[in-house]
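hiii, so i know i said id send this last week but things got crazy w the move. better late than never?? heres the sequnce for the chain we talked about at the cafe, plus the structure i predicted for it. fair warning i was half asleep when i ran it
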Amino acid sequence: MKGDRVEIVVDAGDTTRTYEVVASRAGRRVETAVRRGVVEVSEVTRNGSVVRTARFMANRVLALVEQPVPRDDAAADGAA
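okay and structure toks below
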């Protein structure tokens, strides 16, 4: 959903760097995948088209933090 984000902290030798991928529009989401030594974070549309992708070597990734948008509790109570 819009506002979902993933922060990636990467070892850059003598320092660390932080990258952020955010679902920038309504109907988009952020997906993460770890394949063959590569961490891939993608912003994806409703129909599955990839808008943008960030790739990092898995042995360099120090932290991968998924931060979903806080959902409205009132809407969840009304649906139940």
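btw The chain has a mean pLDDT of 86. thought thatd interest u
miss u guys!!
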